[in-house]
Amino acid sequence: MNPTLFISHGAPNIILSDIKSKRNIKKLAENLEMPKYIIIFSAHYLTKDLKIISPTTNKIMYDFYGFEDELYKVKYEINSDEKLTLELIERLKKSNIDISIDENRKSYDHGVWNVLALMYEHLKIPVLQISIPSSYSIEQLINLGVNLQQFKDEALIICSGGITHNLGDTSMNPNIKDYAKKFNSDIIDIIENNRVDDLKNIQKNINFYKNHPSTEHFLPLFVAYGNAINKKGKSFNSEMLYSNISMESFIFDEDTTYKQ
């Protein structure tokens, strides 16, 4: 069985850096068995209803601005797969999950390729990207993760987002902002101790909206939690950038996934 990962992807230029988070994500991948394919969610692919990208997708998008010129020259080979896409749709529909192909989505956003480039220098397996549906409640996102458990023997499921994401209050000051530090600590406690009620009611946390003026970067965590068999996750990376951007990342179902 493959694990489930929640990865805080941070800024896209992480791939040009040599920071702790880059090293930890790469190290994690080196210690995992290679899956047959990857199913991935990104905070940067939101749709009204549940969608999956076109199976002909084979390119990346540079969906950001204001970064180093070098970043816009990065190339990364990545592709979807028609057979696997159609099988996934069929199997989810048998589980009463309605999903359809998004023929308008034919490239991978940076929440996908940035993370995968950190994990795999050369990716030789298909990547199926599923959207985050804005019409879903927290319970429905968790249930979507549960229904994706049937794929864990063959696919690595990655949920790419951010534990904190208040870009309007970032700073080069090395001091971590209290609201980000406290919220990050709360999430570690919730995930590592399976405090499911606190997770489902996270929007009532006093620091939630300080860290998430918009919620899309937190939503993939609900899918990851639902997908886990063992609901107690483990942090494999802790770093705070720009005074309030947490790179906290979690692995679920760790015990049987590491190479011997």
Q: How would you characterize this protein structure?
A:
Helix content is 30%, strand content 18%. The protein has 8 helices and 10 strands. The strands form 3 sheets. Strands 5-2-6-1-10-7 form a 6-stranded mixed sheet, with helices on both faces. A two-stranded parallel ribbon has the order 3-4.
In short:
The chain is built from eight helices and ten strands.
Q: Largest sheet, order of strands side by side?
A: 5-2-6-1-10-7
Largest sheet: 6 strands, mixed
Counting DSSP E segments of at least 2 residues, the number of strands comes to: 10
Portion of residues within helices:
25-40%
* Quaternary structure: single chain
Helix/strand/pairing category: alpha/beta
Q: Extract low-pLDDT stretches.
A: none
Order of helices and strands: EHEEHEHEHEHHHHEEEE
Alpha carbon gyration radius:
17 Å
Please state the average pLDDT score: 95
Record the SSE blueprint.
Layout: E1 4-8, H1 20-30, E2 37-47, E3 51-53, H2 82-94, E4 100-102, H3 110-119, E5 127-133, H4 138-147, E6 155-161, H5 178-192, H6 196-200, H7 208-211, H8 219-227, E7 234-237, E8 240-241, E9 245-246, E10 249-252
Parallel strand pairs: 1-6, 2-5, 2-6, 3-4
Antiparallel strand pairs: 1-10, 7-10, 8-9
Helix pairs in contact: 4-8
